[in-house]
UniProtKB/TrEMBL annotation:
Superkingdom of origin: Bacteria
CDD domains registered for this protein in UniProt: UGD_SDR_e
Classification via PANTHER family: UDP-GLUCURONIC ACID DECARBOXYLASE 1, UDP-GLUCURONIC ACID DECARBOXYLASE-RELATED
Residues in NAD-dependent epimerase/dehydratase domain copies: 5-238
Taxonomic placement: Bacteria, Bacillati, Actinomycetota, Thermoleophilia, Solirubrobacterales
Record protein name field: SDR family oxidoreductase
GO biological process: D-xylose metabolic process; UDP-D-xylose biosynthetic process
Molecular functions (GO terms): NAD+ binding; UDP-glucuronate decarboxylase activity
Organism: Baekduia soli
Membrane topology category: Single-pass type II membrane protein
């Protein structure tokens, strides 16, 4: 039985990862400071193979048992969170990644960092391959998140090259599913909450900007496949099916049967105009590709979350 440490394990992605690792027969240590994560996401896990450690990884932390694999997911990830916590976001990317890499080194564990498609910024290459270096505004409001992740990638590779840590880097594209926070500011939970509450659905700009949405089960499968590979360079994990935000809003209205109207608001600063992963590398080295389309994934999210859960935070 391998022991896996998951930072940010009480968050949306982290809790799903904990579930799947346990299902596959691993022991899991979940580390979270509960700033954006929630005990509600892991309250259903009541097995002896699971341990919760409340800690802020910006400060040094220690684990008093052997660890075989470290999944470093901790970070504010939505615009609402990283704009509210700009310094903490930068510190999680720097101090938190440094401390967690040090823990992986001490335990001789493989280390996977959850990076993001945001390292590409507002890309000038479309779709985005891992070889593209990005077009990021380091001093804009989104820079605290974008640059924290870019720095964390550089730090990860430095530990690999100089310290011999066995590392992996996953670049995550927009992901959705159950346990999203209804008010986290990202498109799918926002649109679902608005549609189910029969409030106007707010689309930024003209809604022509594109995104590629990955269902959470597909994302977790790709993450574990990368962790269990011997690969060290960044790998995109995302669904290459591309939709405009206006198309997403229309699909949400159709699936929910909502009478919500679509209203348009000003574009946020540095809002990317396109976002689509090139997943040729993931197919080649991991044999991975997404299996759940947008309509199916949205329907699963609705079926598994329930209306009250999706709209409750807005009341």
């Amino acid at each position: 039985m391998a022991t896996c440490l998951v930072t940010g394990g009480a968050g949306f992605l982290g809790s799903h990862l904990c579930d799947e690792l346990l299902r596959r027969g691993n022991r899991v240590i979940c580390v979270d400071n509960l700033e954006t994560g929630s005990l509600a996401n892991i309250h259903h896990i009541r097995v002896p193979e699971f341990r919760f450690l409340q800690a802020d990884i910006v400060e040094p932390y220690f684990v008093d048992e052997p660890v075989d694999m470290v999944y470093h997911l901790a970070s504010p990830a939505s615009p609402i969170d990283y704009l509210r916590l700009p310094l903490h976001t930068l510190k999680v990317g720097s101090h938190g990644t440094h401390h967690t890499l040090g823990l992986a080194k001490a335990h001789r564990a493989r280390f996977l960092i959850a990076s993001t498609s945001e390292v590409y910024g507002d890309p000038q290459v479309h779709p985005q391959p891992e070889s593209y270096w990005g077009h990021v505004n380091p001093i804009g409001p989104r820079g605290v998140y974008d640059e924290a992740k870019r720095y964390a990638e550089a730090l990860t590779m430095a530990y690999h090259r100089q310290q011999g840590v066995d590392t992996a880097i996953i670049r995550i594209f927009n992901t959705y599913g159950t346990r999203m926070r209804p008010n986290d500011g990202r498109a799918i939970p926002t649109f679902l909450r608005q549609a189910l509450s029969r409030k106007p659905i707010t689309v930024f700009g003209e809604g022509k900007q594109t995104r590629s949405f990955t269902y959470v089960d597909d994302l977790i499968a790709g993450m574990i496949a990368l962790a269990e590979s011997g690969y060290h360079q960044p790998v995109n994990i995302g669904n290459p099916d591309e939709f405009t935000l206006l198309e997403l809003a229309q699909t949400v209205i159709e699936l929910t049967g909502s009478e919500s109207e679509i209203v348009f608001e000003a574009l946020p600063t540095d809002d990317p105009q396109v976002r689509q992963p090139n997943i040729d590398l993931a197919k080649e080295i991991l044999g991975w590709a997404p299996t759940v389309g947008l309509r199916e994934g949205l329907q699963r999210t609705l079926d598994e979350s329930g209306v009250e859960m999706l709209v409750g935070a807005s009341r």
